[in-house]
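User: My advisor asked me to double-check a structure prediction for Chromosome partitioning protein before group meeting. I don't want to rely on an old file, so could you generate it fresh from this sequence?
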Amino acid sequence: MTNAEPDVLALEVLIRRDGVGEIREGGAVERIIAADADELRSEIMTRVVDRATREEIVIDLRTIDIDGVFPLRVSPDGSLVETGDVGELAPGDDQLTDRLAHAEPAQPAQPGSSAEPDVDGGYEAATGANSDGFLPQGNVHETVRIPRVEMMHHALDHESDDDGVIPGPPQRVAAEVAPAPELDDQRHDATQDAPVQQAEAPPVWFEDRIDEDGLEDTQPWQPRFPRDARAQRDLDEIENVETGPRDIIRPGLPPRPTNTAPVAASASAGTVSKAASSTAPERRKSDTSAPTLADLLADKQAAPEAPAQQGWRSALRVGTGGLIKLGPGEAERIKRDEIRRVQRQFDGSRTVVVMNPKGGAHKTTATLMIAATFGEIRGGYTLAWDNNETRGTLGWRSHPGSHRNTAVDFLRQLPRFEVSGGATIADVDRFVRPQGDAQFDVLASDDDAASAAIIDAEAFSRMHRTLSRFYRVLVVDTGNNMRASNWEAALDVADQLVIVSTAREDTAASAAWLADGLRERGFGDKLENAVTILSSPSAKEDQALTVRLRHHFERLTRAVVEVPYDQAFVGGGELSVSSLKPATRDAWRTATAAIAERL
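Assistant: Sure, here is a fresh prediction for Chromosome partitioning protein from the sequence you gave:
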């Protein structure tokens, strides 16, 4: 007799960045409104998994999420897998059902409205949903409530205890079990000494009771979710899972031996071991292949990969109280890899030089964003340096700090820093401008209109040598004069060149001219290892031009990275990294990872 296959239900789920989503079942649409996308994922995935386990059905999901379209399948046991490749969002995929297109993200309601906040901070609206949380066919209705707290899985039917952990079924506490009567050796069956072959069984929880003889009785308790491996190990440490009579194992006490033969054998083995150990020092003196501490550390296993921290995978882990832990999706794996590359250890200070001889090529923007990304991910000790021979705009585009000192002021005090032990990083703070949470500093160029000071090659080289003692990464913004001596000095010390261009004909032509000049002057190796950043100059992109520029610079440099237009870059004022769009920050992280890869 075979079990019937579970029914399969097809659903479509919409999760939008603004916290408004839908569950679509045939002609029925349930609108769900949350504070943000993470809370929305948690609520929707909790409902779907709950329904699959309660009704013992398979649910195929087409999940339209921020990062793409995910084909998912939820099994009756609560497990969730991807059933295909992640697809790209098509035009109109993220549109709400027409009849409820006016819905807005959850926010505090006005007194007397139909969406009053409830006692736990959630919001409730009129609904026609039935008892299982899904609407009947043919209805389109706004959803119920979504509390502003971490979602817990409905299917467990348990209250969380004080420490926020969802308790499982009742488990035995060894200290509360009355001591079992002492058993004579004769009462132990011989089968206890034989190895036990454990048959595979479906994953279940166990509800343990003590029978009238003081022995334990185990009866299955079928949950909506199977016990995970960790919970199984914890239970195995408390009880012997075997056939026949069992001893109760109490914490701190080893199990009582079943007969004297193994004890005698153990004692005999101990005698042999002691005898053998008496000759161990002599063997070690002549054994040149003995393992060392380095061998022990080399054998150490790498830390397991952390579960997903973003997207629907993370929402499912949060929504089930950690019972279902999925690894990161492709987008999160790429992000983690980029972070690892930016965080890679260097064997000394590294210098990144940003170049394009044309003004308005986004060199200063690129310098700030590269330095900010290094600073945020590596945790400081990053300097953005305006190496303009007279005046640049890096100081104007960054946070001004508490002083107006510039590279010229630092150059005047440089003898103090050049003497060994003459100054510390704290003294450098008098000349650089900290950028707050972005965790990098700015060394501005001279902005005194009456000043005649010029930074030449010798001055740049002396400052670079000194600043390299205090910073791990120096990101240098260059001027527009390729013949200036300080421009050439920066090229000489560069560990990584970054060629920046907007997606415009004139700016790209200037970048191509720069590449020709580098090759002709003997810097072909640095050009081949360079990274090109193509920056979109406006919200309306010229795709054909971008493709042509990418094709050109891919044959000249090691990598080409496109970064999007962002309104926060417009205006030329102080740049606030935190105000940038997530897609903009992701693109600059990708660019910085490409730069760090060869540093």
